[in-house]
Amino acid sequence: MKQGRQSMILELIENHDVETQEELLALLREKGYEVTQATISRDIKELKLVKVQTESGTYKYALSGKEPQGRLDVFRRVFRDTVVSVEAAASLVVVRTMSGSANAAAEAIDVMNLPDVAGTLAGDNTIFVAVREEGRQQNVVEALSRMLRSK
Question: What topology does CATH give the domain 2-66?
């Protein structure tokens, strides 16, 4: 539940200019998450979110750029906690996630900069991973599977 909520928070702040905890709370409730402001505050701290200035001069929540390793750790945790399966399919790799978590898990794959991954396309619970070269799908499956097993 916590991991799914935190995945949704990452997705929401990527897709919306969320200026306040109240806005984040409202967006989460629209997505079916019944949480309190105190829970949101803890999530913000655990995810190491910061406020950054937008082009229009307002402020919004974003991942901290000061701690790249911390950011990677957050994405790895989100990936581990939301991915259900990884399999090769023709020239793609298909990753299945818990409902509503594919965008955050796809972002995790993108942030990892795996050499065989050209990019990702995410739906609600499915990610298509484009592999750079034909025949390298199994390498990507193995790399993603290792990420699932790592602590």
Answer: Arc Repressor Mutant, subunit A (1.10.10)
